[in-house]
Design a protein that fits this description.
Elements (H helix, E strand, L loop, with lengths): L3 E6 L6 H7 L1 E4 L2 E3 L5 E3 L6 H10 L5 E3 L3 H8 L5 E6 L7 H15 L4 E6 L5 H15 L4 H12 L2 E7 L3 H5 L5 H10 L1 E8 L2 E9 L4 H11 L7 E6 L3 H14 L6 E4 L2 H7 L3 E7 L4
Parallel strand pairs: 1-2, 1-6, 6-7, 11-12
Antiparallel strand pairs: 3-4, 3-5, 8-9, 8-13, 9-10, 11-13
Helix pairs in contact: 3-4, 5-6, 9-10
Length: about 280
């Protein structure tokens, strides 16, 4: 019988406690505010510490991918099958590094199997899928069943975010200077959506009045989430997330809306004032 390891990176925002609870190995990505000192995501700072530091930082923090050597060491961890679910390969070289070392290690060790899943998503959009894969493993699921389950959940994920401060998106190149100037002048907030493994601009919301209802309406326009799992997700802006949950509940009173946090790997690029809706059409 195969000895299977469920593995992911810290961009999944699973967190140390949940990873230990479900037996998941999490490889930390890194981030830096000055390009010299790097923090291990999920280990060296709490989320609150990271976002407080980001608010006063003069530069947009940078992230660093997991190296091929780190993957090689992680694969050789006493298991004969590794199922690694990666942050979207469209935005990070981490997935490519994982595949490269998987092929090398498998060629050197007969019978050893590494399956790298490109989640095409970010944060808990693949973190929850990894947890469900770990649950299935505890229930005796095969590697093939676990891989299928993780992929189904990842590929059923949708996300709709806004940030009330576009400065970080401009500094990080996510929006250009012209868009930034017009958005500030007209009080426009672009909705960020997940599309083909990338985060893109979707609808544009005008004004802060009824912002939470407008975000729910924008998400609904892209696909009703009445039948799936729904969460608010945010960068430690708890009050705004609560307002958003209330806005969802007003339209969907029978849905239990969960709440979860975005970690540094994503927060480095979005800034400290992001909140939104995550929706999974696959039931779990």
């Amino acid at each position: 019988m195969s000895k299977i390891l469920i593995m992911t990176d810290s961009g999944s925002d699973i967190g140390v406690k949940r990873a230990a609870e479900y037996g998941i190995k999490v490889l930390p990505l890194k981030y830096s505010f000055d390009g010299e000192h790097y923090y291990l995501d999920g280990i060296d700072q709490t989320l609150e510490e990271f976002y407080e530091m980001e608010k006063t930082a003069s530069e947009v923090p940078k992230t660093a991918q997991i190296s091929p050597l780190e993957f090689e060491e992680a694969y050789k961890d006493g298991y004969d099958t590794v199922i690694y679910t990666a942050i979207s390969g469209k935005a990070s070289g981490t997935c490519q590094n994982a595949v490269m070392m998987a092929n090398q290690v498998m060629s050197e060790h007969e019978g050893f199997k590494v399956e790298v899943i490109d989640s095409l998503t970010y944060s808990v959009l693949y973190g929850f899928a990894v947890i469900e894969g770990a649950k299935l493993l505890k229930e005796g699921g095969s590697a093939e069943e676990i891989i299928e389950r993780i992929k189904k959940i990842c590929y059923s994920a949708n996300a709709y975010f806004v940030t009330e401060d576009l400065t970080h998106l401009k500094k990080g190149g996510r929006i250009n200077a012209a868009t930034f100037a017009v958005a500030n002048m007209l009080d426009i907030k672009p909705v960020l959506v997940l599309k083909d493994g990338l985060v893109e601009q979707g609808a544009k919301l005008r004004g802060s009045k009824n912002l939470y209802k407008k975000l729910v309406d924008a998400a609904k326009a892209m696909g009703d989430f009445n039948e799936g799992k729904v969460y608010t997700i945010h960068t430690c802006v708890y009050e705004k997330a609560a307002f958003l949950r209330n806005a969802i509940s007003e339209q969907y009173p029978d849905i239990i809306v969960g709440d979860t946090l975005v970690g540094p790997t994503i927060g480095c690029h979005t800034g400290p004032d992001l909140f939104g809706i995550v929706y999974f059409s696959e039931k779990f």
